[in-house]
Specification:
The complex is a heterodimer of chains A (576) and B (191).
Chain A (H helix, E strand, L loop, with lengths): L1 H6 L10 E3 L6 E3 H32 L8 H34 L8 H23 L17 H30 L9 H31 L8 H12 L1 H22 L6 H14 L16 H8 L1 H27 L8 H4 L6 H24 L13 H28 L8 H27 L22 H34 L5 H7 L22 H26 L6
Antiparallel strand pairs in A: 1-2
Helix pairs in contact in A: 2-3, 2-4, 2-16, 3-4, 3-5, 3-6, 3-8, 4-5, 5-6, 6-7, 6-8, 6-9, 8-11, 8-13, 8-14, 9-11, 10-11, 11-13, 11-18, 13-14, 13-15, 13-18, 14-15, 14-16, 15-16
Chain B lengths: L17 H27 L7 E4 L2 H15 E4 L6 E3 L6 E7 L2 E3 L1 E5 L4 E7 L4 E6 L3 E5 L3 E7 L5 E7 L11 E7 L13
Parallel strand pairs in B: 3-6, 4-7, 6-12
Antiparallel strand pairs in B: 1-10, 2-3, 4-5, 7-10, 8-9, 8-11, 11-12
Classes of the chains: A mainly alpha (576), B alpha+beta (191).
């Protein structure tokens, strides 16, 4: 784009400590680039470890396999939650924050040395907590609800990790200030940076909540504090636990915009609308701690209704807006390119063989249909009565965090490798299929767990045949079928995960070095230069029938599923 | 593009296309509807969670539950040694959770309403009534009181669905629902 060159602020292109990206024209701070690499690699390592643990969990919950014994199962389940839900995602998000600030703004990163300290703290923290769990005395689940107690190192590691992550978030803020002061860009920050800023603001709230609850809990585990109220713990802990998933939402939506910009040259339909939607996240997403407290004693229904709905679903509104503007931007740019036949030629002729695009679009669809709808239903005050702590809950959040966030991050990796690591992908055919294999597997995990949960099957449960219990109880046969299918889906997702790790590690170590010519030839990213689409999307040029149909289907599915669950609720014992 | 500063520096003054506005309006109104639906259900729906709860010392709660069981025990659940307690309709019914049992076994009458108390004596537990599928979180130190009206007869299981240590999956309790006025069939119901 013409703006890219202007965005350099008239600086010499070959300034010391910087390089110019041959593919995008962005001015890349080498120190920031190294930090992005380090954080991304750490993320992938923990994804591999945590993903392996996840496979063990799924194979144990597959009744015909029932792999681990009870003690190991609870231990591995604790480690799985920790390593993927927290460590993989936050490490990758730090890489995203550095990228969206230093790289996209063409700025130097604030205090790279401190960024290394933050990185070390996160790494040490993650290691300390993992060791505590693997030693066997801290099988308390990721949530570690008191009065159940882990060893002090379990909490200490989490605190170190949170301090490191918080430091990195402030380095992001510092970089924004530097870029503004040094004039490395003109006007407003790009939309992707705005989305990252949203994630960072939510991260401050999240990590602060974590510190507020984990520090006293750590002192309690050391015997210095006598009592932690279990309800207060849950309220504050979920200020971290749920809000950290909202960092993910903001980050992966920003990545959707990033990928369609790089791969297709798509621009947002309306900057105002997309930024407004991010603003709704900042204002309302943090209320979601209530999602975990809907069937708890001592909280009023008024409090629950207001908080669980993010004040009248205003954060859901944000996601529904992105759910239209992202496919809308794709449709607009594709139509501009001449794919104007019928309602869906633009979608059929999208670059489905580009893993970055395929992963992004699957993430968009599955986050909305599986994760979004199930989240609203699960978080409805009364409907939660038929779902709380059933497998529906992990079913829901595997849809948001795995098919949504993780798949989007994987898709982004296929651009990070050529642009930041400056290597071509090895095994491009494997990479091409990876988003589909992983996406379908993860979607299966989500759907089958939600199915089992609808039938009442408990989450975090080693033996749903109750073979060692005083009383036996038989879940319906369908529930057992669901658990078996869940195991098969987990095998598929694990295959996709292995494909991802092989491509990433292989490319970083053995990938061919990129050159300007070779990147253009690879067609991984949109050709830059004269703008392909200067005017579409602005007033008067709108024609997006495909997007209207997609959001229409989404809305219909949403409304139907919502009312079906009220129907289920109306069939349980009357209570009040 | 989304990776560059907006071309138009006054991006907030750009008009928004009608298609976007329509979708935003639909999504907003749907949110308002879902919000109001929860409130509406509080007035018209038969399934809501009570707001009644008290702080209580676990020992006190245990005493109350034991006194309640002693008063209304009608038999033993099979050969488990667990009492089956048949409280009068409308009365306060107590059940506690502890590692790893639900105590006592209850026998309720179909169509009658009870004030069910739930609390834990140690860690957090999850009251998951199956196959009805009612799920309530049980905390130590909090006595949660809700009115319930069993609407079908049968044997119902209380599965713990909040992880509570290595015996978690063995924690299952029982509730019998019988026809009103029937003699207590507890002794024959088995394990």
């Amino acid at each position: 784009m013409a703006t890219t060159v202007e965005g350099l602020g008239g600086r010499p292109a070959t300034e010391a400590g910087f390089r110019i990206c041959p593919a995008t024209g962005l001015r890349v701070h080498i120190a920031a680039q190294t930090l992005i690499k380090a954080n991304a690699v750490a993320a992938v390592v923990f994804l591999a470890i945590g993903g392996f643990f996840g496979l063990l969990v799924a194979l144990t919950r597959w009744p015909a396999v029932h792999l681990l014994d009870a003690e190991w199962f609870y231990l591995i389940l604790t480690a799985h939650g920790l390593d993927v839900l927290l460590v993989w995602i936050i490490f990758f998000e730090i890489a995203v924050l550095y990228f969206a600030s230093a790289i996209l703004l063409g700025s130097r990163l604030a205090t790279p040395r401190l960024a290394w300290v933050a990185f070390a703290l996160m790494l040490i923290g993650a290691a300390v907590t993992n060791v505590a769990v693997l030693q066997g005395d801290s099988s308390v689940m990721f949530t570690s609800y008191p009065p159940m107690q882990a060893t002090p190192n379990f909490y200490l590691g989490l605190i170190l990790f949170a301090v490191g992550a918080l430091t990195a978030v402030f380095i992001f803020f510092g970089t924004l200030v530097i870029a503004k002061e040094e004039g490395t860009y003109e006007g407003s920050i790009p939309l992707v940076t705005f989305g990252a800023l949203t994630a960072a603001i939510i991260a401050v709230f999240t990590l602060a909540s974590g510190a507020v609850i984990l520090i006293p809990t750590w002192l309690w585990s050391l015997g210095l504090i006598a009592h932690i109220d279990p309800l207060m713990y849950k309220l504050v802990w979920w200020g971290m636990g749920h809000s950290s998933q909202q960092i993910n939402v903001s980050a992966h939506v920003a990545i959707w915009y990033l990928i369609i910009a790089l791969v297709l040259g798509a621009k947002p339909l309306s900057e105002k609308v997309s930024r407004g939607a991010f603003l709704l996240y900042i204002l309302f997403l943090q209320l979601a701690s209530a999602h975990h407290l809907l069937v708890e004693p001592a909280l009023s229904s008024e409090w629950k209704v207001f908080n669980t709905s993010y004040a009248m679903y205003l954060a859901v509104l944000g996601s529904m807006i992105h759910g239209m503007t992202v496919p809308g931007a794709v449709e607009a740019v594709q139509r501009q390119r001449g794919f104007t036949n019928g309602i869906f030629e633009w979608l059929r002729r999208a670059p489905w063989d580009n893993p970055a695009f395929a992963g992004m679009f699957l993430s968009l669809v599955m986050f909305g249909f599986l994760g979004g709808i199930s989240g609203v239903v699960l978080g409805t005050e009364q409907i939660n009565l038929i779902m709380h702590n059933t497998l529906y809950v992990p079913g829901h959040f595997h849809a948001t965090v795995v098919t949504g966030t993780t798949l989007a991050f994987m898709a982004a990796t296929y651009l990070v490798i050529p642009l930041i690591f400056q290597r071509h992908l090895v095994l491009p055919k494997v990479a091409r299929w990876q988003p589909y294999v992983f996406g379908i597997g993860a979607a299966g995990i989500s759907l089958f767990m939600m199915g089992a949960g609808t039938l009442g099957v408990s989450r975090r449960h080693w033996d749903i045949t109750f073979s060692e219990a005083l009383f036996s109880f038989d879940y319906p046969a369908t529930a057992f079928l669901m658990m078996g299918l869940n195991g098969i889906a987990a095998l598929l997702a694990a295959t996709g995960g292995i494909m991802y790790v092989v491509v990433v590690v292989g490319s970083i170590l053995f990938g061919e070095r990129t050159t300007e010519a070779s990147i253009r030839e690879s067609k991984l990213i949109a050709p830059y230069g004269p703008e392909v689409a200067a005017t579409y999307g602005s007033a008067g040029t709108w024609h997006l029938p495909g997007t209207y149909v997609l959001v229409g289907i989404f809305f219909t599915a949403f409304a139907l599923y919502y009312f079906v669950n009220w129907k289920y609720l109306s069939e349980i014992w009357p209570m009040g | 593009m989304a990776i560059h500063p907006p071309k138009n520096r006054l991006w907030w003054n750009e008009p928004v296309e009608r298609g976007e506005i329509v979708w935003i309006a639909i999504a907003f109104l749907w949110g308002v509807f879902m919000f109001l639906f929860m409130i509406w259900w509080h007035f018209t729906g038969a399934q809501n969670l009570s707001n009644e709860a008290y702080r209580i010392d676990p020992d006190t709660y245990a005493e109350r539950t034991e006194a309640f069981a002693e008063q209304y025990t009608v038999g033993e659940e099979g050969d488990t040694g667990l009492p089956v307690v048949h409280p009068p309709p409308g009365s306060d019914v107590y059940m506690y959770a502890r590692l790893w049992e639900w105590w006592p076994v209850l026998e309720l009458e179909r169509g009658q309403t009870y004030r069910l108390h739930l609390s834990s004596l140690d860690w957090q537990h999850g009251f998951s009534l199956q196959p009805v599928n009612i799920n309530i979180q049980v905390h130590p130190g909090y006595d949660m009181v809700m009115t319930i009206t069993p609407d079908r007869t049968g044997v119902f299981s209380v599965v713990c669905n909040e992880y509570c240590g290595v015996g978690h999956h063995t924690m299952v309790g029982k509730i019998h629902v019988v026809e009103p006025g029937q003699p207590a069939p507890a002794a024959e119901s088995g394990g």
